[in-house]
Every structure is written in C-alpha cells, then in structure tokens.
Amino acid sequence: QVRLVESGGGSVQAGGSLKLSCSASDYTFNSAAMAWFRQAPGKEREGVAALYRDGTTYYSDSVQGRFTISQDNAQNTMYLQMNSLAPEDTATYFCAAYRRTSTAWSLPATWQYWGQGTQVTVSS
C-alpha cells in the first residue's frame, strides 16, 4: 500500500525555521505532483504549497516568500522549508501526492495519497 510519512515538525519561536520531510513507500514522487496542506484546530484543511510535474510551484498567499516546496527524487522524499515562522503557521502539516482530478491544487479532494501529519507549533 502507498504510505506517506511526514517528519520534521516541532515547536519553534516566531521568526524561526523548520524543514518538513515527507517520505514515500510503494510510490515514486517524480511520477506525479505533490503538495503540502495544513490544518489548525477547528479549521478546514488548507493548501500551503504544491509542486507539479513540470516544475511549476504554487503557494498560498499567507506563505508566499517564506516557504519553499522541493523534492529529492533519489531519496523519494519531498520537503517544505519554512522560514520566518509566525504563530498563525501553527497547525498539523500534511503531505499529499498524485492529482487524481483536474481541480485546483489547494482543494484537498484533488489529491489521492495523504500522510498522517506532523505538528508545527510556533510561539510568539
């Protein structure tokens, strides 16, 4: 079965940085698009960043200029580098892979495979 596992979350003070990783089993990242989402308590899951097969990247307005999505095909791993973190970035972060529909990347229903999430907490 396809399994995505996030890691790298933790607690950090405002202004700090974290780098999240997502490793895959029984799946090759370079064969399809990938994305990062996040979900805060009581809120809907929202798209953070996406990387399409042609190299095009997409970011939500709230993280543009601070976060960077990337992949390492040799390690079958994707990453989310997060800089200048703020308390509003606090959430559980999920990686997603394979666009099963042609709908917008920022919609959770677009994606086929999901990880279990990793917690990011940013204190002021």
Could you give a short description of this structure?
With 124 residues, the chain is an all-beta fold. 0% of the residues lie in helices and 51% in strands.
Structural write-up:
Strands 2, 4, 5, 6, 9, 10 and 11 form a seven-stranded mixed β-sheet that branches. Strands 1-3-8-7 form a four-stranded antiparallel β-sheet, with no helix packed on it. The chain is 0% helix and 51% strand. The N and C termini lie far apart (40 Å). The chain has 124 residues and is mainly β. Strand 5 and strand 6 form a beta hairpin. The mean pLDDT is 93.
Keywords:
51% strand, four-stranded antiparallel beta sheet, mainly beta, 124 residues, seven-stranded mixed beta sheet
Mind sketching the topology for me?
Layout: E1 3-7, E2 10-13, E3 18-25, E4 34-39, E5 46-51, E6 57-59, E7 67-72, E8 77-82, E9 91-99, E10 111-114, E11 118-123
Parallel strand pairs: 2-11
Antiparallel strand pairs: 1-3, 3-8, 4-5, 4-9, 5-6, 7-8, 9-10, 9-11
